[in-house]
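FORM 7B - TANDEM STRUCTURE REPORT

SECTION 1: FIRST PROTEIN
SEQUENCE AND TOKENS:
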Amino acid sequence: MITRICTVFIEIVELEYKINLLKKELIRIAETTSLNNHETICCSQRLDQYVTIYQKLLMKKKLKNTRTINVGISSSNHNSLIVY
């Protein structure tokens, strides 16, 4: 369980790093070419893909944390509490 959490955390950190690099690259490309340039569009699409993966990973992590917290609280009480 700990290993999976660490892996997800590392993936999130790596994605954040890559997203920030792509943002800077996109700005640089757009400034030196144009917003309609093929290279700008490709970089923007690549950035979109990384952002989508990042969002899905965060949602997945959030759902796992919610389930873990819910199960932990349910086992000690008979009331369920979902923490977001």
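SECTION 2: SECOND PROTEIN
SEQUENCE AND TOKENS:
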Amino acid sequence: MKIHRAYRYELDPNAQQRILLAKHAGAARFAYNWGLARWEEIDENEGRSPNAIELHRRAAPDRRRAPERETRPPEKRRRKAPLPEGAQSSTPP
């Protein structure tokens, strides 16, 4: 005889965790809506259904755009740790 069990968990997030959960849900909703819009666009213009790999490839140029400017004040920006004595940087000056 096969026994099926189910477990139910309840989350009890604090205020900070609720904010993070809401941000995660918003990002997931944005990604889903973006993919749906691209799928409908391809279906309407080309008469075919794209697969997930094609949609991921179309998303790549959007992710690789130029980084946005630093908005934090200079005193809060991360500074690179100094190199040990005698070490050379692998990046050009």
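SECTION 3: OBSERVATIONS ON SECOND PROTEIN
The mean pLDDT is 80.
Residues 34-62 form one domain.

SECTION 4: SIGNATURE
Preparer initials: ____
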